């Protein structure tokens, strides 16, 4: 196990980004490079700071509460009556703990949720809340290992999907160039603007329906 792996193993793997980095692994890299203090992980709390101090040979520091407070384990809950199926929470979840489809109800798999709360802010109808785990329990090293594995699988899947999307776009572009005359650049831009406007109109209509339901 290299030093980054060793430091990463002390982190809770909630992937909450409260430390200012895009997940636990980048924070571990910054710690090894001595670019950041060891007290910027609210989910790890004082125990996590002590573990990092031991591994890195640094003095224990109090938690930097500007990054957030250490709280009991919470999980996300979706008010399914008001979910509009926008998929923004699914895109935000770093461990694929939310299931659902476009324009269909979404559900949080509580057993997989790390409590990162990254799904809350993107929800356009405020139908996601963070609730304490019942019965209350502590986040364990086994939880952390499972969350790390899911986060890695998600990153691999997203990279693969991005490559596949790029390949499809290149293939479609090649077919269009062969089968039809080139469109003026202004036509291409106008088409993209029209598509974006349709998406905005659909989302605004869904939001209006959700607000109406909540008002009644």
UniProtKB/TrEMBL annotation:
Composition bias of kind Basic and acidic residues appears in: 158-179
Q: Name one Pfam family in it.
A: FeS
Please provide the record's keywords in A-Z order: 4Fe-4S, Cell inner membrane, Cell membrane, Electron transport, Iron, Iron-sulfur, Membrane, Metal-binding, Repeat, Translocase, Transport
Q: 4Fe-4S ferredoxin-type domain location, by residue?
A: 74-103, 104-133
In alphabetical order, the GO MF annotations are: 4 iron, 4 sulfur cluster binding; electron transfer activity; metal ion binding
- Region (Disordered) residue ranges read 149-194
| The keyword Transferase is assigned to this record | no
Where in this chain does the record put each 4Fe-4S domain? 1-58
Query: What is the superkingdom listed in this entry's lineage?
Result: Bacteria
Does the keyword Magnesium feature in the UniProt annotation? Answer: no
Matching entries from PANTHER family are given as: ION-TRANSLOCATING OXIDOREDUCTASE COMPLEX SUBUNIT B, OXIDOREDUCTASE
According to UniProt, the name of this protein is Electron transport complex protein RnfB
Origin organism of this chain? Answer: Pigmentiphaga kullae
């Amino acid at each position: 196990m290299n030093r980054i792996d060793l430091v990463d193993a002390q982190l809770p793997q909630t992937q909450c980004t409260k430390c200012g980095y895009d997940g636990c692994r980048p924070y571990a890299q910054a710690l090894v490079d001595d670019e950041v203090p060891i007290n910027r992980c609210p989910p790890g709390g004082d125990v996590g700071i002590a573990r990092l101090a031991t591994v890195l040979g640094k003095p224990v520091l109090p938690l930097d509460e500007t990054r957030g407070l250490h709280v009991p384990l919470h999980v996300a809950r979706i008010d399914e009556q008001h979910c509009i199926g926008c998929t923004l929470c699914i895109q935000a979840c770093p461990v694929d703990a939310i299931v659902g489809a476009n324009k269909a109800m979404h559900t949080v798999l509580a057993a997989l949720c790390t409590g990162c709360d990254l799904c809350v802010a993107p929800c356009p109808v405020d139908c996601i809340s963070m609730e304490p785990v019942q019965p209350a329990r502590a986040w364990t090293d086994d939880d952390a290992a499972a969350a790390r594995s899911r986060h890695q699988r998600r990153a691999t899947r997203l990279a693969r999907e991005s490559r596949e999307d790029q390949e499809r776009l290149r293939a479609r572009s090649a077919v269009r160039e062969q089968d039809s005359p080139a469109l003026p650049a202004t036509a291409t831009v106008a088409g993209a603007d029209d598509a974006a406007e349709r998406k905005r109109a659909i989302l605004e209509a869904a939001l209006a329906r959700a607000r109406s339901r909540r008002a009644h």
